[in-house]
Amino acid sequence: MTLTELKYIVAVAREKHFGKGADACHVSQPTLSVAIKKLEEELQVKLFERNANEITVTPLGEEIVRQAQSVLEQADNIREIAKRGKDPLAGPLRLGVIYTIGPYLLPDLVRQAIAMTPQMPLMLQENFTVKLLEELRTGEIDCAILAEPFPDANLAIAPLYDEPFMAAVPSGHPLAALKGVTAEELKKETMLLLGTGHCFRDHVLEVCPEFARFSSSTEGIRKSFEGSSLETIKHMVAAGMGITLVPRLGVPKEALLEQAAARKTAKGKAAPVRNGAAEQPSFIKYLPFEGEVPSRRVVLAWRRSFTRYEAIAALRNAIYACELPGVNRLS
Questions:
Q1: How distant is the alpha carbon of residue 255 from its chain centre?
Q2: Which distant-in-sequence residues (6+ apart) come within 8 Å of 53 by Cβ?
């Protein structure tokens, strides 16, 4: 029995497919299949049921796969302990980030990490919360930046910041003339939502729960639409198809500067000029909430068995070195 064979059975159990498991392990399918068959013969048990369309793990196989995962994690810990004796920050850190945080945090975070810990490059992955939690459990990533709430996976959690939401409306919309909006005012509008699987969709539905179901466009009720990313939805807002909510870091700095300049112009002051010409107006107006402001808590999560404590601390320092405009930093 070898660590490589244990790695193979964990991969196949996760992917439910020999070919995909081989791809995940960067080996050919015949190599993986022969190794697993050898392990089954050694243990004298059947780990997988091989059907025409799918692979299923046998009941005894599930128990063996769980133990194999634990053994692989312990082996990784041995390597990490050895590295820490030389430089606790040496080597890459595998970081997962959800889709609605990655585009707005990662560019600044990567710059800060390179400046502060060049010996610890970040290996980045964007994905859904549920997928990142699974990859944390199986050791495919070391830590993840997530938004609460999410299922308790017995992870270590460090709060990073509370991020308020803003409403994004077409610049020609009646709401665009307001200084702020309330959740009640949004209930009469066409709400554009992210698709199922995005945790930010659930955050929006907490603010406007009536959009949880599709409905016909009748008096007092508006149909909700779904998009694949916040940036796609923002383009839909700009086209006048509806409104949406965005996290504060997802609001372009230029848009807020433009809105501030427009307010000054309305008071009789000259509009700012860039490169000899007035700035072009945005097609989206971003509005803060009045009264109770909806928000999300962003956290850093990692396995309790992960031993590179200094790496986690260095990552948090790099995150706090980012600009993070408009959020409430947590310590």
A1: 24
A2: none
